[in-house]
Amino acid sequence: MTLQNIISMTLYLTFVVYVIFGTYSLTLNTKSRLNRVFACLGLSFALWGFTFAAINSSLTSEEALLWRRMSVLGWGVAYSIMLHFVIILTESNWSRTEKRPMLMSVLYLPAIVNAITFLIYSMPENGHVQMVYSPAGWYTTTNVIWYDRMFLGYYLSFSLIAMILLVQWYKQTDSAINRKKARAILLSFLVALVLGTLTDFITVSFSNVQLPSLAPVITMIPAVTIYWIIRKYGLMLAPQNENESQQEGIILSTLSRTRLFKYVSIVLIIGSILNFYGRISTGDNCITGLFLSFTLVLMGAFVVSIPYLFKSIKTQENALGYFLAVLLPVVMLGHYNVDFRTIIWPIPIFYLMLTVIFNNKKIFLALTVLSLLMEVLFWILMPDLWLLVDQRLYFYRLLFYAIGIGMTAIITQIYVLRLQENSKQDSFQKMISRLSADFVTMNRINFDDKVKQLLKESGNFTSIDRVYLGRISEDEKNLVCSHEWVSAGITSLMDETKNVGITAGSWRMEQILKNEIIDIPSPNQLPAAAEEDCLWLKKAKVRSQILVPIQSNNSIIGLLGFEEVRGSKALRVIDPDWLRVLANILADAIAKVETEHDMNYLAYYDPLTGIPNRTLFYRRLEQAIDLARQTGKNLGVIFIDLDGFKEVNDTLGHDWGDQLLKRIGNRLIDCLGEADLIGRFGGDEFLIMVPQVSQDLELEKIVEKVMTIFHRPFLVAEQELYISGSGGIAIYPKDGENVNSLIKNADLAMYAAKKSGKGRINYCSGDMKEAVQEKMMLTNSLHRALENHELFLHYQPQVSAETHELTGFEALLRWNHPERGIISPELFIPLAEQSGLISTIGEWVLQTACAQNKAWQEQGYKPVRMGVNLSVEQFRSSNLERIIHNCLAATRLEAQYLDLEITEGIAMKTSQYVIRQLYALKKLGVSISIDDFGTAFSSMSRLKDLPVDRIKIDRQFIWGIGANPRDEAVISVMIHLARELGLEVTAEGVETAAQLAFLRIEDCNEIQGYYFSKPVSVDTIQTDIYQNQSSRCETGPRCITAMTGGEPG
User: What digits encode the pLDDT tens for the residues 995-1017?
Assistant: First the structure.
């Protein structure tokens, strides 16, 4: 082989290599700017190499000049694309989107000017560019010094700018890997710049060495360096071959199909190289032959890119079929000459062999028909052929044999691999069925064993070194190994820190949270953003890794990890989608366990404070009682209730209240021993159990600790809150021998402590228990009192303070217990309110009082008002207006003779509901009085807005007349203000003449009290009051008192 052919072949090989590099970068990531620009750089270098190979193998100077002029499309723009690549690589400010138009202008305008200038001055008629032949090939001479200098300035300036950017990137980056990348590329650029300058300018201009330009060979240095960096450090993203899922009837798997396309591409590239060599070795340098070599390489690049260009498997196979159908006549007709006509006939057979593995009848039939037509055509064109077979043709025959043997081996391997994949998939499905059946019986107790079994079986199935389950923390800050299986001789992550190197913000964590499977064939193939992950994997000696996210309830809760440490390459034959099935089994298992845990937690723990709830506390207390019964020791139960917690909720909001409960719960836990138990009873109530108490002093110390927690403020939302708590203590066995009695008596003691003052704690006593029993007995009897006619009404007269004339009555409820006799209203009214009977009883009182008043009127007595008290529960009822209306209608009592008495506490509430309710009642025509006026906080501005008719001064002020000047002053003020507001005044509890005299002087309207009459029955009123009204004298009140049997004072 001559020196000229060696150089031509070398230049052509650079063209092939550049095409491979550019295609490889695109298959890594077609969407990345860096990949696309590097592919363009590879294309420009490829054009440079191909045209220079064509120049050097040309037969005439005119042909060489033609290719020289075409070469400007390569070397004329290569340095602009190279700088563009470096700008994107170093993430320079010029790479930003908003600067892209200016960047394109600055970069490519010089290239366009350079190309146009060269094409003009290199025209053959100008004679500025001469192609000179030498034994090494064709080299270029010019007589235009200014253009050489212009191009020298272009390529040197762009190269220097690129190197400056690389130096800045090296200095500014914090990544050690990026510094290694920058250093390697910078050195390769520097070496290429020096060698290029020497060969293309110094050697040609200042020496007698007549060599063709070897620039495409020299630029191979940075190109190979970048390719090496891609392989070692993952300069560009990993391959993204996202084909559709495997369909039934498809022989090739995704991996096998990708390999087949690579094999076809390699055959085409080899064919291109052989075609080029055959042409230059025989001196046949026809442009069609060169074009065929060029086309074969580009076709090889297209074939290897098919899996990355089309996701559909059918489209991929069709694309290859159409490609082969076009290529077959091109190859056969392109080699239609005496030398090759007898050895190209097996080519259709190779094509048909490829169609076997596609299982596509259309492609097979199309290529069969085309092959037959080509052979018939050759038969017609060459019915008889005589050929001398020399050594070169024997070589090509052997080459075709080798191709046929290779294709047979490839097809055999594909079918064997497919059979192995089918067998492996069958084994995998059996394993999945077995694991799924096994996980049906999974629960919280055997969860760990089930997971370990799954990891073991999946590890043995994949022949992997390490399989583990990683769980992501709730704050997504780290990921720890919770379960693991390792093969023999592999270091366990569980023996160390359980750290798998995946932290918040890391590249792998981001991909996992996106629910994307991470397939890392090698740490060097990770992208630049994953430098931290790359360093950790190398430090952990992990050679390859697959991470499968585990998703549950639309959130990522962990991952299933597979790692190779020894480098067995087992992960390369595993379909990551298979591993997703294992991850789904784990996701269901984890969800089931968490649901079971949540149900158990909600069943036995308070969701707000995290401490045991009433159910769990009862269970543990029952167990502690059994133990105390066996050991003969005591047991203490402490019932804690917060003082004023409702005010915290009302003023600061329930969120603050919840936070306060959490803080209190935490403090109670901190002050108790390990054997003690705290539980939340409900609302703002806590229970504490102190088991195995030998001496009372032990319990007293714990009680002191518990009450001490309220001495310090609680920090809520960066604000200090002070709150107290009241407590009650019950001790086993004296205060109860079962759970209910102990808690009941501790609660009883707590309420006793609250009555004595806030922030106190009481022990349960016998008197407390008796009081509770008494209360329970009366409550039970009260439920039957109404139906047993044990309730009745007494009426207390109300008279004019000036004339002593009867103005009304107040209906007062009484209870005649069958066993205990008359029971005080002060005792049973609160019981009725607590038990919810007050509304029913209140309606009965209202109905009875109105009916009685109407009966007196029908008997001819003077019509007067009937005062009826309304309880808080009655007033809150939305049906109150309807109840009053129905009562008046049923009793036929005129509304003006019904006086509804409400307490001062109800009247003074700043609620629009109170005002609306009062106005609704006034519309019925009834009068409204404020009872016990002065005992609560009264507001005159509030009073003037209420539709009330009178106030009733409480007896505690009346009893101070003659004894306490302050009470007299308050009474005077109240009467005066009521007069100013147009309200009448009734004084309650008048018992002496002095009190009456004072009230008359102060101009009080009405009097009610024992001085005139105590509450009496209906019969007494009819006989002693109504019948004797006409015979009253000046001392009439005393006469009434005598007649009614009242006791003065």
Answer: 999 999 999 999 999 999 999 99
Helix crossing, 965-980 with 993-1001: angle to 10°?
40
Output 1030 or 590, whichever has higher pLDDT.
590
pLDDT attached to residue 349: 67
Query: What SS3 class is residue 809?
Result: strand
Q: List C-alpha distances in Å: 979 to 80, 117, 996.
A: 102, 113, 18
% helix, strand, coil for the chain, step of 5: 60, 15, 25
| Same domain (yes/no): 175, 110 | yes
Cβ proximity of 332 and 51 under 8 Å: no
Distance CA 1039, CA 1045 (A): 10
Closest to 301 (Cα-Cα) out of 16, 8, 12: 16
Compute the C-alpha angle 586/592/595, nearest 5°.
Answer: 140
Whether residue 726 sits in one domain with residue 679: yes
What CATH number should be reported for the domain holding residue 545? 3.30.450.40
The answer as to whether 780 is a domain residue is no
Q: Are 471 and 558 in contact (CB under 8 A)?
A: yes
Q: Provide φ and ψ at 996, rounded to 5°.
A: -65, -40
Q: How confident is the model at residue 900 (pLDDT cuts 50, 70, 90)?
A: very high
Number of Cβ within 10 Å of residue 941's Cβ equals 6
- Look at the block and give the residue holding tokens 């071959």: 241
CA distances from 921 to 290, 338, 913, 932 (A): 109, 122, 12, 20
Q: What is the mean pLDDT of the chain?
A: 82
Contact 713, 648 (CB under 8 A): no
Give me the half-sphere count of Cα atoms (radius 13 Å) on the Cβ side of residue 397.
10
Decide: residue 882, CB within 10 A, 0-12 exposed, 13-18 middle, 19+ buried: exposed
Residue 559 in tokens: 């991952």
CA 1014 to CA 1020: how far, in whole Å?
A: 11
**For position 833, what pLDDT does the model report?**
83
Domain residue limits at 514: 441-601
Structure tokens given for 959: 């009893």
Provide the phi-psi class of 757: left if phi over 0, else alpha when psi is between -120 and 50, else beta.
left
Cis upstream peptide for 733 (omega within 30°): yes
Please count the residues of the chain. Answer: 1049
Q: What is the DSSP string of 211-228?
A: ----HHHHTHHHHHHHHH
- pLDDT one-digit tens code per residue, 261-301: 788 788 888 878 887 887 777 666 566 667 878 888 888 88
Position 554 scores a pLDDT of 82
Residues 421 and 448 in one domain: no
List helix spans (H) across 207-312. Answer: 215-218, 220-233, 254-282, 287-309
Q: How many whole angstroms separate alpha carbon 323 and alpha carbon 104?
A: 35
Residues 742, 847: one domain?
Answer: no
CA gap 586, 230 in Å, rounded: 36
Could you say which of 433, 461, 480 is where a domain stops? 433
Question: Do residue 755 and residue 865 come from a single domain?
Answer: no
Whole-angstrom CA distances from 944 to 144, 891, 915, 923, 1002 are 111, 32, 12, 18, 21
* C-alpha to C-alpha distance for 811 and 791, rounded to whole angstroms: 12
State which of 571, 586, 601 marks the end of a domain: 601
The rounded distance, in Å, linking the Cα atoms of 718 and 700 is 33
Asked if 530 and 560 count as a contact pair (C-beta separation under 8 A), the reply is no
Q: How far is CA 560 from the centre of its chain?
A: 20
Q: Are residues 855 and 832 in the same domain?
A: yes
CB 1048 within 8 A of CB 1014: no
How much is the pTM? 0.53
Rounded Cα distance between 700 and 698, Å, is 5
Which pLDDT does position 1046 carry in this prediction? 37
Asked whether residue 10 falls in the same domain as residue 103, the answer is: yes
